[in-house]
Amino acid sequence: MSLETILPFLQPIADLITDPNVSEVMVNGDGAIFMQRAGVLYRVHAKIEQRYLSTAVKRIARSLGEDISESKPLLEARLPDGSRVAAAFPPCSLHGVTLTVRKFRPHWFTLDELVDVGAIPRPAADLLASAVRNRRTILVSGGTDTGKTTFTKALIDFIPQSERLAVIEDTMELKVDHPNVCRFEARKEVRDGGGNVSVPAVTVRDLVKATLRHRPDRLIIGEVRGGEAFDLVDALNTGHAGSISTLHANSAVQALSRLASLALRADVDLPYRAIQAEIGDLIDLVVQVERCGHERRVAHILEVHGFDAGLNTYKAVSIYESALN
């Protein structure tokens, strides 16, 4: 199934879904419709009947072997063309069905193109390209919709093609053009009509552990958000330098602290200070990206040189900071 197969049920937003310049379409429970174009949200003065919206969402769910109803009111799905659909039914969604369609991105920016649009200056881009080639381990940090995935893809392009990559994501999103790559995607648990687990979940942490048996040279983790942070640190200790991961944090310094805090969720018998020390030794660069209006840019690049236990702080040097900060 592709988006085109559900267009008859999504009038009058079908034109938005087929518009190549629109990246996301949102329908709120009260019927308000919004779209994102070039990173900017716009209100669409149109209406879609709830019965048609409900039919479209149910058809998407059925085509993917899932269900959505009052008893199972949430749906998160990826269509075969890569588009992502999130929906919620009443009673969880007040006033009516809520639908968000994030369309598959046909074009990904290269690092050169990011330089051209002003997202990063040439010297900083060259520094990052060299860091990737030289197997320096990088965290790409930022808030929601700041361009973490875009910048990660641009960095992956500089990994030598002689190396083997393992890409791990909660939901597949990254486009990786590499001759030797194995891809893994987490799976949510599935429950039967009686509420019993019929298909167990496979978490990102499960996948990080399993991936190491496939002999990757580097790990690419789409987003670190739980105990897999500890497994990432452990992998970096066993010959996987040069890995690239993303996580949510509001600053480059906070990204290091957040990675340490997430590692504690693995419930391992290791002091917090020991985890901080390992992160200080194993992470080389933190790239902080942010959204400024409708533009996304690299705000800060931090070079990490260890952890000072006495001062309880990471030893780090700012090697680039946007003049707009």
Layout of SSEs?
Elements: H1 14-18, E1 22-27, E2 33-37, E3 40-44, H2 50-63, E4 74-78, E5 84-88, E6 98-102, H3 111-116, H4 122-133, E7 138-142, H5 148-156, E8 165-169, E9 181-185, E10 190-191, E11 197-199, H6 204-211, E12 218-221, H7 228-236, E13 244-248, H8 252-264, H9 272-282, E14 285-292, E15 295-308, E16 313-321
Helix pairs in contact: 6-7, 7-8, 8-9
Strand order of the largest sheet: 9-8-12-13-7-14-15-16
> Which class do the helix and strand fractions yield?
alpha/beta
The whole-number mean of residue pLDDT values reads 90
**Uncertain segments:** none
What is the number of domains? Answer: 2
SSE pattern: HEEEHEEEHHEHEEEEHEHEHHEEE
What is the overall shape? globular
**What is the C-alpha radius of gyration, as a whole number of Å?**
21 Å
Question: What is the name of the CATH topology of the largest domain?
Answer: Rossmann fold
Number of E-state strands: 16
Look at the structure and give the CATH class of the largest domain: Alpha Beta
Tell me what portion of residues adopts beta-strand conformation.
25-35%
Spatial gap, N to C terminus: 44 Å
> What is the annotated CATH architecture of the largest domain?
3-Layer(aba) Sandwich
Give the name of the CATH superfamily of the largest domain. P-loop containing nucleotide triphosphate hydrolases
The biggest sheet amounts to: 8 strands, mixed
DSSP helix fraction? 25-40%
**How many DSSP helices?**
9
